[in-house]
Amino acid sequence: MGRRCLGCGALLQSDDPGRAGYVPPEKTETAQLCQRCFRIKHYGDFKSVSVEDFPFDEISKSVDLVCFIVDAVDIEGSWLVDRFEDVEKIWLVVNKTDLLPFSKEELSRWVVEEIGWTRKFFLISARKGWGLKSFWDEMMFALSGKRIAFMGATNVGKSSLLSRLLGDTDITVSPWPGTTIDVVERSLSDGTVFLDTPGIVPEGRLYGILCPNCQKKVIPSKKLSGKVFLLTQGRSLMLGGLVILSVEQGSVLVKPFISYEVPLHRTNKLRIYEILKEGVGDWLAPPCKGCLKKVEEMGWEEKVFVMEAGKDIAVSGIGWISFFKGEGKVSVMVPKGVRITVRRSIRR
Ligand code: GDP
């Protein structure tokens, strides 16, 4: 069997620069990383940094406050807060709440009780402007004239938030020396300094392995609502051709909260492999044919859970499936390495 890239897990190959895992022919024998991962890691894309390379503590030690932004649709996937030594300095900012069909009270209670976050947090929407005024006022009241870093995974809306907050203020921008990554300082006239840091590329986020076109379909752009499905023993629900939930024992009523552009298909578990071969990339997409090939190279992974009403299975980078009624043993198939979390539902 061929070797795999240590960065993204793709099979290393020198045939097609457009496909995952490409390394130039002269590096075939020696490369540990594919060309794309090598570029991200060593020089190319300074707007993002892998989790292992991100200097969480170096930055947090140099500031008075860290505003850590997470994606409301993928809290587990964008939750990198445990990596900080100095958690006292963190304000948690949950962005994209406009995509959730829950009240502020429901979400607040869930953040405290299920995530266990008892420190300061804000529920906002950078897109709609929700919660930004109280966030800004509180920050300026407590930390005017101090140094504040904005951090978070890629695609959580860090740039959208910063440009909305700082967009029309009097800002000077300068690169901040002292770390190897590209931190940019923005200063207000009252002496407050904002550090805009590169996005962190989290591990195990499903859309990270997809092409830009499939990513566009998988990342939700409208409020999620969810459609109810009854699944009895031996039945499966396919979320596109990317996540497959099957009931091994019992029967359950589930509601997937995912982008409208990911089609849902209920079938017999026995038919899954046939559909993966013939339907996915065709009438069941995403993934497109190219992304499916990539997924097949990486391989599938199946995990089994005992589920009951009031719990969710969250799959990082696509959404979650809420269990409403019934109970049972279920299996979830995802591309290898994608993060799956079982959690208490936001709405009880
Ligand atoms: P960054 O990589 O963390 O800087 O994220 P960006 O600011 O580039 O945003 C990533 C994507 O999320 C873009 O498509 C934004 O339009 C979208 N986005 C950002 N904030 C929000 C929000 O509050 N709600 C919704 N629905 N989308 C958002």
Characterization of the model:
The longest helix has 12 residues, at 132-143. The strands form 3 sheets. Strands 10, 11, 12, 13, 14, 15, 16 and 17 form an 8-stranded antiparallel β-sheet that branches. Strand 7 (184-187) and strand 8 form a beta hairpin. With 348 residues, this protein is of the alpha/beta class. The chain folds into 3 domains: 1-44, no CATH class; 48-201, Rossmann fold; 214-344, no CATH class. The termini are far apart. It has helices spanning 35-42, 56-61, 75-78, 104-113, 132-143, 158-166, 212-218, 272-278, 289-298; strands spanning 48-50, 65-71, 90-95, 121-123, 147-152, 172-175, 184-187, 193-196, 199-201, 229-231, 235-239, 243-258, 264-268, 300-308, 311-315, 319-335, 340-344. 21% of the residues lie in helices and 30% in strands. The chain is globular, with a radius of gyration of 21 Å. Guanosine-5'-diphosphate (GDP) binds at residues 95-96, 98-99, 125-127, 152, 154-160, 199.
